[in-house]
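Collaboration report, partner site 2.

Our partner group contributed sequences for two proteins of shared interest, and the home lab folded both. The records are reproduced in the order in which they were received, starting with the first partner submission.
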Amino acid sequence: MAKGKDARIPVLLECTACVRNGVNKESTGISRYITQKNRHNTPNRLELLKFCPYCYKHTIHGEIKK
């Protein structure tokens, strides 16, 4: 039997500090994490505090479109 739309969807989290600063000159790249969220419990965009290896500190990572 087929189910309806799944409640859990994969999302990409991207460092907001790297995007705003245009990435450090020493390192190229933007920190991204893949996680899941429940569409019914969190309908708005997800923001989590994660470690960014390019900024060398914990920064806010926000949900982006695929």
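Second partner submission, folded after the first:
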Amino acid sequence: MKLFTGLIFCSLVLGASGLLSFLGEAARGTWDMIRAYHDMREANYIGADKYFHARGNYDAAQRGPGGAWAAKVISDGRENFQRFTDRGAEDSRADQAANEWGRSGKDPNHFRPAGLPDKY
């Protein structure tokens, strides 16, 4: 419902062409988030979690307002889900800080752990 309401609001504010642009940015931003998650799982590197959170949000936000919106929705949903399933609120807050860092355009390498392969 939140997603639908957000899309309706955006369509009213942005108009039809703006909506298409927003949706394209959101789709590409979603892909950026998926790619960061996949890379995090593949790297399986201790201490790299915050880096991949920041990187996914940074890459998505660079797509434009739609990408930043998608990153926020995905990050908030994931953290809210995990907070109640397998982790505590403290770790979730730290992840959200890394998410916000990346979405704000700050360099995600701030969270990059030493020794993480250059591939990432």
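Feedback sent to the partner group on the second submission included the following. The first helix runs from residue 2 to 43. The mean pLDDT is 89.
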